[in-house]
């Protein structure tokens, strides 16, 4: 083998050896000297993910939280899939689909319950669910609880989601404008985009998600298995902090709304309205991940033909951290 | 004989090398994260069998054709005019240079506002993407016309219309053609981007749809199809360019 | 010094309808013609300073001089591509305000349209004059024949050599039968042998036609060989310095003794200019009327 061949082969080998490191490299960087680990947690600027204000509220010993904002669900999911973030608040159906395809993630905490709304044009033409016939409705993703909820209520009212309504995907931040310009007639998505439409007088809330399925789960906190294995104390502290924050939001919605601006970029009055009018529009109670919630979601997914229904829920759900947090509360 | 063989063998070998490299790189990831050539090939077959593909391609090409034609038809006359009128250039020049660097994609919200939803915003984006290269190439081509051509035409007493048809257009043609060539490539790229934003059909939408379903293999299949079509379009316009040059006896350097 | 000058009589400008005095009326006349402009830095520059010159009908006049002497300015003023800032430039007694198809200019870069064939290039001129298709084609082919390019009518400029291209230019000019030909260093871009050939061809063509020719060149030999009169110019400011009448047998011979003599005179005159412009503040020649001597 001459010198050039040798260099080429060593070069390729060295390059190849870098790649696994590159993949792992994005994972949970230990902050030198402090003994703390930095966890990147993905989220969207929706009130469902309000728990992440714990990043600013809590003084953790073992970790720091770095919220990573995304403007669409696919981006969020891709980042988690690629290992670019350590965890993410992700829609339940999406999480199950990822898990089924082999992404090494587990759910350790719920993000919230309820918290979404069907918002429609306020020109007076749509006043009941039945009026949605022949209209275009946006959902944030096929793999969203919103999609499932929409189809559920349509089915309940005797409409065929495939024939009577046109359902399209759209990133949540674009929905209000799309409603105003007439591109869609309505959307179902997490707050604050329902209230925002009302504030701007371009839409009205037709129905709250809690009216479709009381106390439904929606977004859940997924963490990569590697992180859980490597930093169990940090994960425990994280869940404990989220649990405290949940209690805080429930008891001090006004102050929580004020603190939300840094995370969500919305005016505090809007967030306040979401948290209080009416009560339980968005709830942060009972956030221990439970088999029953997931099974119910999964059966609806199956009913509406979504993939992700073959996940083994037993190995996917890890409620140990949440339960321990409750004990020490 | 040997030349012909090389012309096929060399690119084929390069493509094979790329496929191998891809296969090797993909082996470091799961199939869901970074699919290899085989998965993507299967995805392509899935698209072809699915029945939607031809409709999507047809719609994308239709949008491209409409917008590109509109751009060419407006940019060339404007460019010819601006090329000959210095005063106009001084007046409008800064505005053109201000608008040009703005990414066509950024126009999208305004496009939706002005033209509503549907094909119009995507067509508008492609129009903008194609308009400026053609305009600027035309102006530049007109400005490069040797002054002696105009001296000759003045000397022989040619009328302005004659000068325009007999001299300006043929003299500027090579430069304009280059602009048309570049603009086609730019237009195609922006078509796909534009369709990713607000369409519900076309190749761009196909890719976005695949993304919403978290199907990386379909995304890559879409990417490859977009690339192949872009290649075909480029070959067509190169052929047209060569045909016209031959027609106008321009296979050598100008006198 | 040898330039043959006839001081005194100024040709009448007003008598151009007088057929008896026809020969006295110059075809082209410069009267105190001046061309000044502002350079890029804002300095006033004088390309031509109070120039006076007559060119008679049928004459072949060569303008020679170093760069900056104004010879290109003079020919452009005559052809109408530029306007004088002072004085007058007239052809056939009328002021020249714009280019005219009766006075065709040939350029150093040939000015041929590369996308047109030789025939189409020649046709261009004819079409501009409104000549109808069939007649135009006949005339064009005839013109190309005259310059010896009849068989190359369908070639494009890039397929022709430099000398051939200039011939096409010539054919294009001759096809519209102008009374004046302006030639601005037309052979400067050609190699020595082609240049000599084309000079001979030019003389041959001209001998068969009534043509007034003004020919700009920096080649002193070329000027003597071609011209009936050679006008020497000098720069800073651009001005006429000297006129030499050339009397050589026709057809001309470059090895003629008298050719040598003219050469010597011209070089000496040029030398003088050269040396004098090296002297600061010198003005060699006053503003004299330089007139043509043919016919008187």
Brief characterization of the structure:
The complex is a heterotrimer of chains A (329), B (255) and C (296). Chain A has 15 helices and 13 strands.
What features would you describe in this structure?
The complex is a heterotrimer of chains A (329), B (255) and C (296). With 329 residues, chain A is α/β, with parallel strands linked by helices. Chain A folds into 2 domains: 26-114 and 218-327, D-Maltodextrin-Binding Protein, domain 2; 116-212, D-Maltodextrin-Binding Protein, domain 2, CATH 3.40.190.10. Chain A contains 15 helices and 13 strands. Chain A has helices at 3-25, 54-57, 73-82, 92-100, 145-156, 172-181, 193-199, 209-212, 225-230, 232-251, 253-264, 268-276, 291-303, 313-316, 320-327, and strands at 29-31, 36-43, 63-69, 87-91, 105-110, 113-114, 116-121, 136-139, 166-169, 186-190, 203-208, 219-224, 282-283. The longest helix of chain A is centred in the N-terminal third of the chain and has 23 residues, at 3-25. The N and C termini of chain A lie far apart (67 Å). In chain A, 49% of the residues are buried. The longest helix of chain B has 39 residues, at 160-198. In chain C, strand 7, helix 5 (192-207) and strand 8 form a beta-alpha-beta unit. The relative contact order of chain C is 0.18.
The average pLDDT value of chain A, as a whole number, equals 86
Number of domains of chain B: 1
Low-pLDDT runs of 5+ residues of chain A are: 20-26
Tell me the span between the first and last alpha carbons of chain A. 67 Å
CATH topology of chain B: MetI-like fold
Shape of chain A: globular
Ranges of chain B where pLDDT stays below 50 over 5 or more residues in a row are none
Number of strands of chain A: 13
CATH architecture of the largest domain in chain A: 3-Layer(aba) Sandwich
Q: Main beta sheet of chain B, described?
A: none
Largest interface: B-C, 26 and 30 residues
Largest sheet report of chain A: 6 strands, mixed
The amount of beta strand of chain A, in percent, is: 15-25%
Number of helices of chain B: 10
Note the gap between the termini of chain B: 34 Å
Oligomeric state, counting identical vs distinct chains: heterotrimer
In which range does the helix fraction of chain A lie?
Answer: 40-55%
- How many helices of chain A? The count is 15
Binned, the helix content of chain B reads: over 70%
């Amino acid at each position: 083998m001459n010198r050039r061949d040798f260099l080429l082969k060593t070069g390729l080998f060295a390059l190849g050896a870098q790649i696994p490191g590159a993949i792992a490299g994005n994972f949970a960087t230990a902050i030198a000297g402090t003994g703390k680990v930095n966890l990147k947690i993905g989220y969207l600027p929706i009130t469902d993910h309000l728990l992440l204000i714990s990043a600013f509220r809590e003084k953790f010993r073992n970790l720091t939280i770095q919220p990573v904002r995304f403007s669409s669900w696919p981006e969020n999911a891709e980042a988690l899939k690629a290992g670019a973030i350590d965890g993410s608040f992700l829609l339940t159906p999406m999480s199950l689909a990822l898990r089924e395809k082999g992404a090494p993630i587990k759910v350790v905490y719920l993000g919230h319950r309820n918290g979404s709304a069907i918002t429609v044009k306020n020109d007076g033409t749509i006043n009941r669910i039945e009026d949605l016939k022949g209209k275009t409705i946006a959902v944030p993703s096929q793999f969203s609880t919103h999609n499932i909820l929409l189809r559920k209520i349509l089915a309940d009212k005797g409409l065929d989601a495939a024939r009577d309504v046109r359902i399209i995907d759209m990133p949540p931040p674009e929905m209000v404008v799309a409603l105003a310009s007439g591109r869609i007639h309505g959307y179902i998505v997490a707050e604050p985009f329902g209230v925002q439409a009302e504030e701007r007088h371009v839409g009205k809330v037709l129905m709250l998600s809690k009216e479709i399925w009381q106390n439904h789960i929606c977004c859940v906190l997924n963490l990569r298995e590697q992180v859980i294995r490597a930093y169990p104390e940090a994960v425990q502290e994280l869940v404990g902090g989220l649990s405290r924050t949940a209690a805080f939001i429930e008891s001090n919605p006004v102050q929580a709304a004020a603190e939300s601006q840094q995370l969500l970029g919305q005016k505090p009055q809007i967030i306040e309205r979401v948290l209080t009018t009416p009560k339980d529009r968005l709830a942060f109670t009972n956030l221990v991940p439970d088999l029953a919630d997931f099974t119910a979601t999964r059966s609806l997914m199956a009913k509406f033909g979504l993939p992700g229904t073959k996940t083994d829920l037993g190995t996917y759900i890890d409620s140990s951290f949440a339960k321990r947090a409750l004990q020490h509360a | 004989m040997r030349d012909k063989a090389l012309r096929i063998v060399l690119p084929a070998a390069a493509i094979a090398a790329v496929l191998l490299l891809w296969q090797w790189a993909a082996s470091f990831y799961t199939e869901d994260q970074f699919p290899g050539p085989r998965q993507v090939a299967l995805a392509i077959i899935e698209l072809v069998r699915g029945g939607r593909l031809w409709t999507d391609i047809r719609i994308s090409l239709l949008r491209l054709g409409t917008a590109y034609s509109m751009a060419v038809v407006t940019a060339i006359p404007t460019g010819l005019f601006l090329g000959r009128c210095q005063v106009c250039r001084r007046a409008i020049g800064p505005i053109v240079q201000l608008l040009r660097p703005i990414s066509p994609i950024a126009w999208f919200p305004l496009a939706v506002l002005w033209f509503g939803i549907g094909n119009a915003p995507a067509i508008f984006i492609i129009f903008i993407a194609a308009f400026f290269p053609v305009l600027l190439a035309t102006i530049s081509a007109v400005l490069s016309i040797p002054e002696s051509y105009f001296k000759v035409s003045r000397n022989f007493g040619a009328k302005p219309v004659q000068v325009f048809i007999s001299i300006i257009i043929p003299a500027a043609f090579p430069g304009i053609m280059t602009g048309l060539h570049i603009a086609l490539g730019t237009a195609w790229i922006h078509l796909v981007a534009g369709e990713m934003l607000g369409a519900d059909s076309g190749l761009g939408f196909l890719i976005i749809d695949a993304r919403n379903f978290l199907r990386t293999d379909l995304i890559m299949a879409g990417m490859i199809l977009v690339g192949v079509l872009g290649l075909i379009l480029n070959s067509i316009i190169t052929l047209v360019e060569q045909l016209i040059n031959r027609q106008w006896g321009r296979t050598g350097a100008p006198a | 010094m040898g330039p043959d000058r006839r001081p005194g009589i100024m040709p009448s400008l007003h008598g151009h309808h007088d057929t008896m005095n026809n020969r006295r009326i110059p075809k082209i006349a410069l009267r105190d013609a001046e061309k000044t402009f502002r350079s890029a830095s804002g300095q006033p520059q004088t390309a031509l300073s109070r120039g006076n010159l007559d060119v008679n009908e049928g004459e072949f006049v060569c303008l020679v001089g170093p760069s900056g002497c104004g010879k290109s300015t003079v020919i452009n003023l005559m052809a109408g591509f530029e306007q004088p800032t002072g004085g007058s430039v007239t052809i056939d007694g009328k002021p020249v305000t714009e280019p005219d198809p009766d006075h065709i200019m040939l350029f150093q870069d040939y000015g041929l349209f590369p996308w047109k064939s030789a025939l189409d290039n020649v046709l261009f001129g004819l079409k501009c004059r409104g000549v109808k298709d069939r007649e135009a084609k006949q005339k064009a082919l005839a013109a190309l024949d005259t310059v010896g390019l009849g068989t190359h009518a369908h070639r494009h400029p890039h397929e022709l050599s430099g000398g051939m291209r200039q011939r096409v230019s010539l054919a294009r000019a001759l096809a519209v039968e102008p009374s004046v030909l302006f030639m601005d260093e037309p052979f400067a871009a050609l190699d020595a042998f082609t240049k000599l050939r084309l000079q001979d061809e030019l003389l041959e063509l001209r001998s068969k036609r009534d043509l007034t020719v003004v020919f700009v060149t920096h080649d002193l030999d070329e000027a003597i060989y071609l011209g009936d009169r050679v006008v020497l110019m000098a720069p800073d400011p651009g001005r006429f310095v000297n006129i030499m009448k050339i009397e050589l047998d026709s057809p001309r011979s470059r090895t003629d003794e008298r050719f040598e003599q003219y050469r010597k005179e011209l070089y000496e005159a040029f030398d003088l200019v050269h040396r004098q412009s090296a002297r600061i503040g010198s003005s060699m020649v006053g503003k004299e009327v330089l007139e043509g001597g043919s016919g008187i």
